[in-house]
Amino acid sequence: MELTREDKKILHRLQSNFPLTPHPFRTLAEELGLEESEVLRRTRAMAEKGIFRRLGPIIDTHEMGNTASLMAMRVPEGRIEEVSRIINAYTGVSHNYLRKGKNKEIPYNVWFTMSAPNKQELVRLIKEIEEKTGLEVRNLPTTKKFKIGVKFSIYKEE
Amino acid sequence: MNIEKVVTSKTTDRVDIKLLKHIQDGIPLVERPYKEIGEALGMTEEEVISRIRSLLETKKVRRFAASVAHRKIGINSNAMCVWRVPPDRVEAVGKIMAGFPEVTHCYERPTFPDWPYNLFTMIHGYADGECEKVIEEMKEKTGVKDYVILYSEKEFKKTGTRI
Fold it and tell me: Which fold is adopted by the domain A67-140?
């Protein structure tokens, strides 16, 4: 899908908080100098084409009382599909990637993030994955956050 | 009022959970989304709006917005770069790295005998090779020279955080 200037303008704005007004698309339209129907039509088209995944709450697991962490595993080449299927079956797993070091060899290849209602439960789930796969899971929890917030520069006022 | 907020900041009531579960995959793209959500859950439009507002205020919801599929809009250069930073410099280096607009995430994580990299950064760029350029700049600005670029060969799963 080729995005028009208007699409980009809308998409850029949609990355920030959506208006909490009874007619949020009208509020957006007034802000952007467009018609409500146009904003709604273009937003729907971009959603259908998968330009954005969803328009909704980005939940902070930690503030919800949950705990989350990044996990790394060294999985033998021939078992990658099987092991990733086991990992993906957990609803707490939000990301799972096969990664390689570009400039250096690294000891892990499967990287995933997992959340649980509390620390004990997370530790239990890690143990369970270790038992199911027979492989070690390296737990790399965040000790300090310097930046979090995926907002891309999509549209710039000319 | 404030005292109540502090006390309940780590607990989320059942109605909030019900609401979040209903909208976590996206709100309906209609003229009055909050009215439609309210009708489905037996709440008024005002209650839906005020609950979302308070979830944002208590930071249980980090943002109420669209998650852009960056690869679909041409942001094709993506890298995770991990750095080995002396512990006494983590604070300063983390702040410098977080200051780069192309860096979307910057976290400190523990080290292990086989894993000496304590600072994790995610970098996104439009042009091919843009991330490598940014990494060069990060290296120069911080003086940290020991790093590994981890690129993703395959995406097995990617969803937002769900409850």
Answer: Alpha-Beta Plaits (3.30.70)
Is 80 exceeded by the pLDDT of residue B14? Answer: yes
Mean local confidence (pLDDT), B11-21: 86
Amino acid at residue number B155: E
Residues of B in Cβ contact (< 8 Å) with A104: 148
Q: Which of residues 114-133 of B touch A (CB under 8 A)?
A: 114-115, 120, 124
Per-residue model confidence as pLDDT tens digits over B132-157: 999 999 999 999 999 999 988 887 88
Q: Which residues of A touch B49 (CB under 8 A)?
A: 20-22
Q: Is B107 exposed, middle or buried (0-12, 13-18, 19+ CB in 10 A)?
A: buried
Q: How many domains does chain B fold into?
A: 2
Place of tokens 């979302």: B52
Indicate yes or no: CB of B101 within 8 angstroms of CB of A153. Answer: yes
User: Which DSSP state fits B73?
Assistant: G
pLDDT tens digits along A51-74: 998 999 988 877 777 888 999 999
